[in-house]
């Protein structure tokens, strides 16, 4: 899913200039409400799966207009080429030499895309090259091409000699030959579930004697041949078939699993400078499990080598990864500088799938991007990504959203929004949806049209979907409003967790509700300063830093932590004393490290606490969350401040299960509820204040969010009541079952489309028994939405419903006597698609629906559960004798 893309700036071409002029024209005479209608740059985009340069420009323009018409901010223009040919060749009659990336045919499509965005006021992203094709043709001796290092091995019995041609000779330039005495060996075999189903992994496990490892460079090979011990390793370096031109003597994209290694052409000099030794002697240690960290689970390599040392040689592996990261950062810097010289900026999925500390490289691009597939909806996985970005002052943290194996044409909108809500809780604030399909004809392709990844990965959005005009638009508007809020002001985070990793773990578990994970490499950035006992006071304003025993410290990281403590930042060492990060750096001193660590632990600003007592330690320092929660479920929060506008925003996300409780916000400003589904803004009516804190009760459904804005001044156009409820009963509004219940179910047949449900009821309802009050209004309550829903009452369209908690006030639309409700519920396309899969063609290739799921399974569609009309009474309440607020029941 790797992509390098660009996004527009105010100085970028005439495209965005025209967009800005259109925006200015629209807002003449009145201030535009950017929450109600966010600008294109703050709306979600679609990644546009363009088959190749042979398709029709008019269809491309039509697809882009259609996406903008339902609320997308534009597309990420991506010529796909069947994943760079990895998923199959072009269909018969399509020549990629004629229709390849950069050809006149491709440029014609790119021009059409530019015009479509310009004409509709949208924002365009575009990729630097063909997706996964990774570049353009180049001569083999061109500087900067990607090189992969491959290993060949040979066993020689004690006293034996090597005769004949060495393994791998002629396949590439020989970089090194290494010999070692093998102490033990074992054949390893195990089964696991891979991307393409059950897989058996096999490799040989060797323990090498460190004292008997010898390295030989090419010049000395002939002189030393025949003097090796039991195992010989030969390393030819090959120009990879998937390569791209880069700025430096380093390249990173397109590495393949199966035992090859990203090779740094200046590895010897770089290692001598960074660590004081030559890497080539220890190549056997890094050749296993250091390629594509996702795909190599099933193809880690044929031989795993470790040393007979306490860390098994892990220090050498860590040093290799650090050198790789340094070169990668140089690459990103050069590429970013070049693009800025053209008035553009770089967005990249930083070190995606690469064996390195992702956090250390995130600040080197303008708009770092992560992916829901990689982080698997893990909030703390995302916090590893957003923490360094926030510390570096990045305003846009992007996410490629919605790629799930086995979900093509069956991913529902609530599932997409669940992934989005989790990512926002982890600090993400911009989304590129995976993805928009080319809707036109394509050779050897049947309905529903060209499907990227051959039906293996979700999802394919296009006007052919039942929900395109029946529910997807409100979801995109919801996403846009969330993005607008999350790109406003500065994100503030309570606690920073030190997180030095050799390779980033996207599956990190949640430790603390409001925290970011900060890599050791970013503690030396310009933003990482301490002032007034706060780290990064002009950015996230961390109130403390936590170091867990499971973390390892580098020498430079330890020095930086000591500086922070000396400047007044509270440090909490939890669960025990951290160790030293394994490295074979010959320029460092272990004894000096231990002495420095002991001094740090004695510092007055350093607290040591046992496992599970971090929150207690923070409380003892009088440090409280900016957005605290008391709930019977799981809520995640974020907090942003826009000091210039006098506004702050709390985002609350209820994970999976319904939960009630209250949020305690560190603000005494005027609170408002901002509805991301409708764009409405209303004052909070039930809350209490205690000094500079405001407590607000909430009752949230699973996968529901709430935005609470705090303003120093009353917002224009919103009337504030004279007083508020400062106490509330346990159930402010009760929905009771009544005779108007209905059970509506589309069923699970081999059909896809729109379900139309209607019901009639008589109004007004019968007054409550024993009461003289009259029911003056009613709510309509639907069950949680399976995909999407639109509702009319007496032919009046209701505002968009929250798909997690679809409840609406229908009082303005009620009439005396007979009333009619119509709900339109779109299904996914899958149930029909699966029924005719055997007849499908996709660019002349069959489908891959067996990857990640059962192709025979159906999706549940329709309206499932009780639909209720809930009458309500309006009661006038006033100040009680004992309280300076009001108490009442609705």
Please tell me about this protein's structure:
The protein is an alpha/beta fold. The chain has 4 domains: 4-24 and 34-135 and 325-490, TIM Barrel (Alpha-Beta Barrel); 147-256 and 258-291 and 295-324, no CATH class; 627-711, Immunoglobulin-like (Sandwich), CATH 2.60.40; 742-872, Sandwich (Jelly Rolls), CATH 2.60.120.260. The chain contains 18 helices and 44 strands. The strands form 10 sheets. It has an 8-stranded mixed beta barrel, surrounded by 6 helices. Strands 5, 6, 7, 10, 11 and 12 form a 6-stranded antiparallel sheet that branches. Strand 21 (530-531) and strand 22 (534-535) form a beta hairpin. Helix 1 packs parallel to helix 5 (104-120), helix 13 (413-425) packs parallel to helix 14 and helix 15 (555-566) packs parallel to helix 16 (590-601). The two termini are 50 Å apart. Mean pLDDT is 82; it is low at 1-29, 217-230, 239-259, 728-748 and 883-890.
Low-confidence stretches: 1-29, 217-230, 239-259, 728-748, 883-890
| Rg, Cα atoms, Å | 30 Å
Q: In the residues, how many domains can be counted?
A: 4
CATH class of the largest domain: Alpha Beta
> If classified by CATH, what would the architecture of the largest domain be?
Alpha-Beta Barrel
CATH topology of the largest domain: TIM Barrel
Mean pLDDT: 82
The shape is globular
The main pleated sheet reads as:
8 strands, mixed, barrel
Distance between the termini: 50 Å
**Number of helical runs?**
18
Number of strands: 44
Instruction: Tell me which oligomeric state these chains represent.
Output: single chain
Pfam family, one: Glyco_hydro_106
Protein name: Secreted protein
Keywords: Signal
């Amino acid at each position: 899913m790797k992509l390098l893309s660009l996004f527009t700036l105010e100085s970028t071409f005439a495209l965005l200039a025209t967009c800005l002029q259109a925006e200015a024209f629209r807002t003449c005479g009145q201030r535009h409400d950017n929450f109600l209608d966010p600008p294109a740059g703050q709306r979600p985009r679609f990644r546009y799966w363009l088959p190749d340069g042979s398709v029709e420009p008019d269809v491309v323009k039509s697809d882009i207009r259609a996406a903008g018409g339902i609320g997308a901010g534009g597309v990420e223009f991506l010529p796909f080429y069947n994943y760079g040919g990895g998923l199959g060749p072009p269909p018969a009659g399509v020549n990629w030499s004629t229709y390849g990336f950069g050809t006149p045919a491709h440029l014609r499509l790119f021009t059409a895309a530019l015009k479509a965005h310009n004409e509709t006021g949208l924002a365009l992203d575009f990729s630097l090259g063909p997706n996964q094709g990774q570049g353009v043709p180049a001569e083999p001796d061109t500087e900067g091409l990607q090189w992969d290092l491959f290993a060949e091995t040979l066993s020689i019995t004690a006293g034996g000699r090597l005769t004949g041609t060495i393994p791998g000779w002629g396949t590439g330039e020989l970089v090194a030959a290494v010999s070692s005495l093998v102490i033990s060996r074992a054949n390893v075999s195990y089964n696991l579930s891979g991307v393409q189903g059950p897989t058996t992994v096999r490799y040989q496990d060797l323990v090498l004697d460190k004292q008997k490892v010898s390295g030989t460079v090419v010049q000395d090979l002939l002189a030393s041949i025949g003097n090796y011990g039991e195992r010989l390793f030969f390393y030819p370096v090959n120009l990879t078939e998937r390569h791209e031109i880069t700025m430096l003597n380093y390249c990173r994209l397109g590495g393949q699993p199966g035992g090859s290694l990203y090779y740094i052409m200046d590895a010897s000099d770089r290692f001598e400078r960074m660590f004081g030794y030559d890497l080539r002697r220890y190549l056997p240690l890094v050749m296993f499990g250091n390629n594509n960290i996702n795909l190599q689970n099933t193809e880690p390599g044929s031989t795993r080598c470790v040393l007979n040392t306490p860390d098994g040689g892990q220090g050498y592996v860590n040093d290799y990864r650090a050198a790789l990261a340094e070169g990668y950062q140089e690459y990103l810097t050069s590429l970013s500088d070049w693009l800025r010289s053209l008035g553009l900026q770089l967005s990249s999925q930083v070190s995606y799938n690469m064996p390195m500390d992702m956090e250390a490289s995130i600040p080197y691009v303008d708009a770092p991007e992560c992916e829901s597939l990689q982080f698997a909806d893990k909030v703390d996985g995302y916090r590893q990504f957003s923490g360094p970005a926030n510390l570096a002052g990045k305003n846009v943290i992007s996410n490629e959203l919605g790629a799930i194996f086995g979900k093509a044409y069956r991913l529902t909108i609530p599932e997409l929004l669940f992934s989005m809500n989790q990512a926002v809780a982890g600090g993400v604030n911009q989304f590129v949806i995976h993805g928009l399909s080319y809707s036109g004809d394509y050779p050897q392709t049947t309905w529903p049209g060209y499907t990227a990844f051959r039906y293996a990965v979700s999802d394919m959005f296009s006007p052919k979907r039942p929900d395109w005009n029946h529910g997807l638009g409100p979801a995109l508007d919801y996403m846009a409003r969330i993005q607008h809020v999350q790109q406003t002001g500065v994100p503030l985070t309570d606690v920073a967790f030190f997180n030095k990793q050799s390779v980033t773990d996207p599956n990190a578990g949640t430790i603390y509700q409001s925290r970011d994970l900060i890599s050791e490499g970013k503690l030396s950035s310009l933003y990482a300063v301490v002032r007034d006992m706060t780290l990064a006071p002009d950015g996230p304003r961390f109130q403390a830093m936590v170091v867990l025993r499971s973390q390892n410290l580098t020498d430079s990281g330890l020095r930086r932590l000591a500086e922070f403590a000396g400047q007044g930042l509270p440090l909490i060492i939890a669960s025990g004393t951290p160790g030293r990060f394994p490295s074979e750096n010959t320029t460092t001193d272990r004894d000096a490290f231990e002495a420095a660590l002991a001094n740090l632990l004695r510092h007055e600003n350093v607290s040591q606490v046992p496992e599970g007592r971090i929150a207690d330690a923070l409380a003892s320092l009088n440090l409280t969350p900016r957005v605290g929660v008391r709930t019977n479920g799981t809520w995640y929060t974020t907090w942003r401040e826009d000091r210039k506008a006098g506004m702050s925003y709390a985002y609350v996300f209820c994970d999976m299960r319904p939960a009630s409780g209250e949020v305690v916000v560190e603000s005494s400003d005027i609170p408002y509820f901002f509805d991301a589904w409708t764009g409405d803004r209303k004052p909070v009516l039930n809350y209490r204040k205690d000094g500079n804190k405001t407590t607000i009760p909430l009752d949230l459904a699973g996968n529901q969010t709430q935005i609470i804005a705090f303003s120093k001044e009353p917002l224009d156009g919103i009337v504030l009541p004279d007083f508020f409820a400062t106490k509330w009963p346990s159930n402010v509004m009760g929905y009771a079952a009544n005779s108007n219940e209905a059970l509506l179910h589309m069923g699970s047949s081999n059909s896809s489309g729109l379900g139309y449900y209607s019901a009639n009821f008589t109004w007004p309802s019968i007054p409550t028994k024993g009461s003289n009050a009259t029911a003056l209004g009613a709510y309509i309550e639907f069950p949680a939405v399976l995909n999407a829903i639109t509702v009319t009452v007496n032919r009046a369209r209701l505002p968009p419903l929250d798909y997690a908690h679809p409840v609406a006030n229908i009082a303005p639309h009620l009439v005396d006597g007979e009333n009619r409700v119509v709900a339109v519920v779109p299904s996914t396309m899958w149930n029909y698609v699966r029924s005719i899969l055997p007849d499908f063609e996709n660019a002349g290739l069959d489908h891959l629906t067996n990857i990640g799921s059962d192709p025979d399974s159906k999706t549940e569609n329709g309206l499932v559960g009780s639909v209720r009309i809930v009458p309500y009474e309006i009661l006038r309440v006033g100040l009680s004798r004992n309280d300076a607020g009001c108490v009442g029941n609705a």
